[in-house]
Each structure stands twice: as structure tokens, then as C-alpha cells.
Amino acid sequence: VRTAAVIPAAGLGVRLGPGAPKALRTLGGTPMLVHAVRAMAASRAVTHIVVVAPQDDPEGVRRLLDAHPLADRTGLTVVPGGTTRQESVRRGLAALPDGIDVVLVHDAARPLVPVETVDAVIAAVRDGAPAVVPALPLADTVKQVEPRPQGTPEPVVGTPERSLLRAVQTPQGFDLPTLLAAHEIVVEGEGATDDAGLVERLGKPVVLVPGHEEAFKVTRPLDLVLAEAVLARRRA
Ligand code: C5P
């Protein structure tokens, strides 16, 4: 069984505030994307990584990654991204080498996921699950709202039972034909925010494995502070 990882890294990171595209911002002096690539390459099972770069500068991303080489056993391809995450992942899948059976899709915005989580996802796919997602219980209670224009109070329409909800992370792992089929049937613009959601629409089972607190997504400025603290603790 050969395993590859696709890393969508073409987002602008608007919620993080002004600056470079999110994946190129540094943590502990190293670009977030380099951390994410290393996190995938840390798994001995991963033989190839496809990075989906910001559309305007794939060559710059290639140079950046060449300056932070991986062990020889891991191949690397860089392709330009699309306007949505879904399109970026689709372009990454199209660039996979032949002979891959299992594919991970991992957000560049989750640079600190531990290798144990990566390996647990891969193992569950190899054990026969077509789609595997790392997930954690929620700390916060979640409300469903009726959308209103910005600045207007939103009425609450319901409170899903918290114990039945999970926050999902990446890498999400798939049997490759399943993920290709899911991306084929789902029309762009239908608003899938993760890849497993596309597989659910195919009617195939998606299973969860335990996620990890350090696999959090760097989205807002406070997340950068937390990520720096996690790195500093690892290096201590
Ligand atoms: O926007 P969101 O937080 O869901 O982005 C998750 C991941 O998808 C990020 O790593 C981001 O770089 C990537 N992305 C992408 N292409 C887009 C939008 C997001 O590769 N057009």
C-alpha cells in the first residue's frame, strides 16, 4: 500500500489579519507550510507529498520547500491552487503520482499535528475504512442560528446536543478511488468545508479516530500565539 498526502495551502488567511498568505507565515522562524509538510513526512508510510500553493506564486513555494529538504524517501510536487479549498484539493489529487492507494488531505493551517495522529488515520484506512477523520469532543455548546445581515442580532433556532458533536481536524485519510469519486460527483459551490463531507454525500461510511489538541487550525491571531507556545514547549 502506498500513501501520499495532499496539502492545500492556497488560502489567503484573511481571518489571521494582514500579511503574507497564511501558509507562508512563520512559526518559530519556519513557514507554517514547512511545518505541515514535515508533519506529513514524519510518517514513515507517506511516500509522496503534493503541496497546493497560492495561485500567484507556485515557483516561490517550490523554492521555499527546496530550501527545507525532506528525507530522500519522500517525493514532493507543487501545483497552483484554485479559488476554493475544494478546487485546490482537486488540483492536488490530479497531480498525484501513479500507484497511490491511500491519500491524506491535510490543511497547511494545521502545522503541529503529531505523527501519532497521522499514523492512526493511515492505519484505519489500511484496515478498510474508506474515509477516516480525526476528531475531538467540543468544549463549547453550539447554537444553530437563522442568518441575518451582518450587524443584526441572529435569532437562535436550536441547540444540538453537545455530546453528539465532534470538531474534526486533518489529516483526513481516504482510499484514493473513494475520494476521487467524491470530488467528481460534488459540484463546486455546494459548500463542503472538508473532504469527508464529500464522501458522506456519496453515501459511503466515514469513521472517526481520536484527534489531538495540537492539530488545531491556525485561523485567528490568538492561534499564532498558541502555536508558538506549543513549539517552544516541544523545543524545551
Ligand atoms: O479556509 P480554511 O481555513 O478552511 O482553509 C483550510 C486550508 O485550505 C488551508 O490550509 C488553506 O490554505 C487551504 N485553502 C486552499 N485553497 C483555497 C482556500 C483554502 O488551498 N482556495
Automatic annotation (TrEMBL):
Catalyzed chemical reaction(s): 2-C-methyl-D-erythritol 4-phosphate + CTP + H(+) = 4-CDP-2-C-methyl-D-erythritol + diphosphate
Gene3D superfamilies for the chain: Spore Coat Polysaccharide Biosynthesis Protein SpsA, Chain A
Annotated positions for site Transition state stabilizer: 15, 22
One of the GO biological process terms: isopentenyl diphosphate biosynthetic process, methylerythritol 4-phosphate pathway
Record-listed E.C. numbers: 2.7.7.60
A Pfam family assignment: IspD
Keywords: Isoprene biosynthesis, Nucleotidyltransferase, Transferase
InterPro entries, alphabetized: IspD, IspD/TarI, IspD/TarI_cytidylyltransf_bact, ISPD_synthase_CS, Nucleotide-diphossugar_trans
Record site feature (Positions MEP for the nucleophilic attack), residues: 162, 217
Functional pathway: Isoprenoid biosynthesis; isopentenyl diphosphate biosynthesis via DXP pathway; isopentenyl diphosphate from 1-deoxy-D-xylulose 5-phosphate: step 2/6
Molecular function in Gene Ontology: 2-C-methyl-D-erythritol 4-phosphate cytidylyltransferase activity
Function in brief: Catalyzes the formation of 4-diphosphocytidyl-2-C-methyl-D-erythritol from CTP and 2-C-methyl-D-erythritol 4-phosphate (MEP).
Similarity comment text for this entry: Belongs to the IspD/TarI cytidylyltransferase family. IspD subfamily.
Designated name of the protein: 2-C-methyl-D-erythritol 4-phosphate cytidylyltransferase
Gene that produces this protein: ispD
